[in-house]
Amino acid sequence: MRSILAAAACAAMLCLAAPAARAESVDVALVLAADVSRSVDDDEFKLQRQGYAAAVTNARVLQAIAAGPHGAVALCFVEWSGPEEQQVVADWTVIRDGESAASFAAILLDAPRSFVGRTSISAALDFARAYFAKSGVAADRRIIDVSGDGTNNSGRSVLDARAETLDAGITVNGLAIINEHPNPGYFAHTQPPEGLPEYYRQNVVGGPGSFLLVVQDFTSFGEAITNKLVNEIALARPARTSPSRYAGPARSGPAGREGWGEVGRVAHLR
């Protein structure tokens, strides 16, 4: 009996002494946060999902991943709508090659639509920010990639949610989709007075190196996401970037707070 107890004690001590497993290192941990609110019809939803799947497996994206210091990124795909509507469609996956990318893309193509509700960008930011704790990786950068076709019309202030996200050291990039044919009753939501790109620049995007892509319709979504991922992974400039009236302040961060980086890089895809 004493020998058994001694062996058990030794085993316990070894377990305590053993170093914790090191988290896998990646160049960036990226939450892809996609709007599936009621202003997005079924055809537009399909184009959005297909665009994400095509972008993740695109040769340019895979080349950008391979060229990074760690040769890997961690992706998580979340669909969001109202304040209580966030769904992890494809959980944290380390992408190193075409095989891992294809597996991630297959999940996106197979899963059903998560919601058809209101639009809470603030709740999407809150959810994504907290979900980084479940990534299981050590990332050089953390980014939330928000795509949407309308303004925040539900939940708490999007400015407060963005402020907490940026204070946590997370960059927020945006992809504003110009939806001129939303579901009935949502034109004002998708076409705010200042324009959706300016709304995203003022209220959503922020953090060091942050940028916004503007897509003229859902048919060019796949190209936009591909360019966006390449830029985020490779730290290159967005494709076809040019100065625009959305350039914004040169030094002040969002909500008048300093040190959060410029929010003025805007690219338009047609």
In short:
This protein is 37% helix and 20% strand. It is α/β, with parallel strands linked by helices and 270 residues long. Strand 6 (142-148), helix 6 (158-167) and strand 7 form a beta-alpha-beta unit.
Strand content: 15-25%
Assign the CATH class.
Alpha Beta
DSSP helical segment count: 9
Strand-and-helix sequence, N→C? HEEHHEEHHEEHEHHEHE
Main β-sheet, in a few words? Answer: 7 strands, mixed
Averaged pLDDT:
81
Strand order of the largest sheet: 4-3-2-6-7-8-9
Q: Which descriptor suits the 3D outline?
A: globular
Total discrete domains = 1
* CATH fold label: Rossmann fold
**Terminus-to-terminus distance:** 77 Å
Helix content: 25-40%
CATH architectural name: 3-Layer(aba) Sandwich
